[in-house]
Write a structure and sequence with these properties.
mainly beta, two-stranded antiparallel ribbon
């Protein structure tokens, strides 16, 4: 928050190193062939938000 409380800046980042590590492996039931689903981390994401009050 700025000293005058008229504006605010927020920033975020997820998976900064852009890893593709496996976070979960599931096995499906026999009705669909017992295949495995592999879930990895989401790709690098970042952003910013600016709020101005007047």
């Amino acid at each position: 928050m700025s000293p005058s409380n008229k504006w605010q800046l927020r920033a975020f980042a997820k998976n900064v190193a852009d890893n593709d590590d496996i976070i979960r492996i599931t096995q499906e039931g026999p009705l669909v062939g017992r295949f495995r689903s592999i879930y990895t981390l989401e790709p690098r994401t970042y952003g910013a938000e600016v709020e101005i009050r007047f």
